[in-house]
């Protein structure tokens, strides 16, 4: 069985689940090194990628969810905290508001209030997206230098 999931990149990643062997192989076919797999595994490129025992793979995912390194955004999407993406360091602190939303809604207990939590997570994402947009606009405004059309014409030798 194969499942496609979107993360970073144009086409996302694929999970190949081998039910006979009880393994999962995660593949990113956009990866630069995949050409060598083509040579070693003609017609079965996925066999060149790391393979995990199903139990090990899902135990790892469970640990990531419980620690909120991975978290649900909605019923179809999963988010990653900065710590997961950056591999550690202090970006963890930047994700504390997100973690607090989950904890305040009962994560990871039986009292977890999923609908209310996801609503707050979306609100936080929208606020962050708007702040990022404003920051980007301010940065772009600082890069642009107003130039009169006459100056442009002079630069191109159209007017002396």
Q: Can you tell me about this structure?
A:
Strands 1-2-3-4 form a four-stranded antiparallel sheet. Strands 5-6 form a two-stranded antiparallel sheet. It is flat. The chain has seven helices and six strands. The relative contact order is 0.06. It is α+β, with helices and mostly antiparallel strands and 160 residues long. A hairpin with a 5-residue loop joins β5 and β6. It has two domains: 66 residues, no CATH class; 91 residues, no CATH class. α5 packs antiparallel against α6.
For this entry, give a set of tags.
6 strands, 160 residues, 2 domains, two-stranded antiparallel sheet, alpha+beta, 7 helices, 15% strand
List the helices and strands and how they pair.
Elements: E1 2-5, E2 13-18, E3 23-27, H1 34-40, E4 51-53, H2 54-66, E5 70-72, E6 78-80, H3 82-86, H4 91-94, H5 96-104, H6 114-143, H7 149-155
Count of alpha and pi helical runs = 7
Largest sheet: 4 strands, antiparallel
Taking pLDDT < 50 over at least 5 consecutive residues as the criterion, the unreliable ranges are 84-91
Order of helices and strands: EEEHEHEEHHHHH
Share in β-strands: 15-25%
Structural class: alpha+beta
Overall tally of domains = 2
**Integer-rounded radius of gyration:** 23 Å
The average pLDDT is 75
Please state how the strands of the largest beta sheet are arranged side by side.
1-2-3-4
Number of strands: 6
Helix content: 40-55%
**Outline type:** flat
Distance between the termini: 70 Å
Quick rundown:
The protein has 160 residues and is of the alpha+beta class. The chain has 2 domains: 66 residues, no CATH class; 91 residues, no CATH class. 47% of the residues lie in helices and 15% in strands.
